[in-house]
Fold this sequence. Notes:
Layout: E1 2-9, E2 15-20, H1 23-31, E3 44-52, H2 55-66, H3 68-75
Antiparallel strand pairs: 1-2, 1-3
Helix pairs in contact: 2-3
Amino acid sequence: xxxxxxxxxxxxxxxxxxxxxxxxxxxxxxxxxxxxxxxxxxxxxxxxxxxxxxxxxxxxxxxxxxxxxxxxxxxxx
Length: 77
């Protein structure tokens, strides 16, 4: 099982989209500063997630959320 997720920085205007098989652990890594990409923007709150059975399906959805139209959807949440 894979999850596509979106997290929003609490202090700055930044949304990160990712994919994982362990969402709880991944959120801890983002908030503890272990991920280089998101470290300057911590702390985060989870704003959206979806579950998929295959990695291929999850990757397609992750790419959508990283596109312009996908980011616009996430900003409206």
